[in-house]
# Entry
Amino acid sequence: MTQPFNSRFLSACYRLPTDATPVWFMRQAGRYMAEYRAIREKYGLLEIVRQPELAAEVTLQPVRAFGVDAAILFADILLPLQPMGLDFEFARGEGPVIHNPIRTLADVYALRPLEPEETLAPVMQAIRLLRAELGPTPLIGFSGAPFTVASYMIEGGASRDYKTTKLMMYAAPETWQALMDRLSTALAEYVTAQVRAGAQAIQLFDSWVGALSPMDYETFVLPYSKKVLEAAQSTGVPVIHFGTGTATLLPLMRQAGGDVIGLDWRVPLDNGWQAIGHDRAVQGNLDPVALLAPIPELKKRIHDVLRRAEGRPGHIFNVGHGILQHTPEKNVRVAVEIVHEWKTENGE
Amino acid sequence: MTQPFNSRFLSACYRLPTDATPVWFMRQAGRYMAEYRAIREKYGLLEIVRQPELAAEVTLQPVRAFGVDAAILFADILLPLQPMGLDFEFARGEGPVIHNPIRTLADVYALRPLEPEETLAPVMQAIRLLRAELGPTPLIGFSGAPFTVASYMIEGGASRDYKTTKLMMYAAPETWQALMDRLSTALAEYVTAQVRAGAQAIQLFDSWVGALSPMDYETFVLPYSKKVLEAAQSTGVPVIHFGTGTATLLPLMRQAGGDVIGLDWRVPLDNGWQAIGHDRAVQGNLDPVALLAPIPELKKRIHDVLRRAEGRPGHIFNVGHGILQHTPEKNVRVAVEIVHEWKTENGE
# Structure
């Protein structure tokens, strides 16, 4: 059978047949792995991403351990904040904190251009190191999408209701537009720089976009996500467009762009694929909690996802959001095996 | 024109014509009101709900101030926890904390029956006081739905991923079933006791059910919600079934029951109504952040919701989730006026 690029993952991005369904996991490098925790005992998160050798090592851990079909660069969607002028840190036990959040047009004008090749040079260096190490396993670069990154910049951290972010849209749309304009330019430069450094695919994480109505998404988000997605696609690599809680946003996310649309578990994969259109690939959508379930239950749930994708190429198996902290490593290994052993109808 | 029950709200619950669209707001009594804050300076939340005069006073505040078309009892969905045997408190700045969460079948068997007329007597007394005070404005009683209440019982507080709750479903389904069985019995008794005390409608809050896939909802939640909803409907009052993030759950929520299905802003109201079926009424679905926007923007957004409901009776205007803390009282007053001034096509 034909499997271009010598990669299940890249083939599936382009809806080409594969010998088995490709699988990788969001946050596949992380605290649930003993190897990772050993490194985190010595280094903080930002220390790891600023040292290319460490970032590369952490990226490789799940590839070596579980035989996933793609590596994803170990980094954080908030890395562009500091070079753009925001005073940002990971506060112990509190998640990200931005001490000077964006609230006014003057704050937006004070943002610096990203210039990722200089200000995020360790990220680019980690990509180059990884390409030398990874062999045939493709490397996914990534960025936060403009809405999700903007929400941290405006709220000053994580949020439950995105009140300050939405109020900027509703009460100061010119401030919102100026911010999204600069941010989407910066993120477009960031993803293209990652591809130049060697990333073989790009995922855009719009993790929190499900907080919006379709009307607000269309007006306030779609044009800016589109700019980043088009920039990424213009490099020639496949692009994955991911969000959670997006059941009502899928047709608009498709319109914004991406060769592959990521789905969470709230939408059955077959229904989601239909809403997006079968001329795009899909990625997902196991509930990450299922990876903590007993193996027979996990297997049943993986098979349910695979069954809903059957009959056409273009499905990349993944969780619907990142792997959770106390996931047993064994379950991740077994999940990869279950996916690879599934007999696809479209694989021969 | 005909407007049975002398109430826009009750008429709309039964999809009967009204002279104007009825409007009330989830969490319409609360911290955004100066009158409420004055009371909260002297009393804790649980002190208010345990003193019927105070609970009644707080319930009446938004009815007097804004002319909403329904009152909703001031209470908390977690009130049944303590009488059932859970050591529960509102920790300062942390939200609800349960010190002995449910984790095992033995924990479930140790739960006490609710006996709401005795253990929650102040709630029943507040309802009786309110009926004497409210005149023609109907009083809505309420309860948390089994899933949402169970999630607090199991997680021990608020949760981002509902990991422990879902793992009980996936790894110990007999424990989950035993808990949901007892809990749905307790909540069914609680809502029927509220109606006996005088509540003229019941809302079931399944606020966090949007964390589930439709498949998990159908297996692990629907039968138990149905039991509570049927008990409420058997009393003869209209029943509202509410959740957030429910775009993919709406047909199943309809199946579980309710005369009225509540929608959040993530689904355009017309699309949501279609998914539910036009033989049910709908409630919603303004993004609560819009209530903090400048009046012209607020008006535009209210009109958009009203326009999507046009052409048939059976729409109750509301926010898609509770009113936020810093909402200007003036905006709430103006929102009620905007809704009432809208010329419905179905009202004459």
Notes: Chain B has 16 helices and nine strands. Chain B has a mean pLDDT of 96. The CA atoms of residues 26 and 171 of chain B lie 35 Å apart.
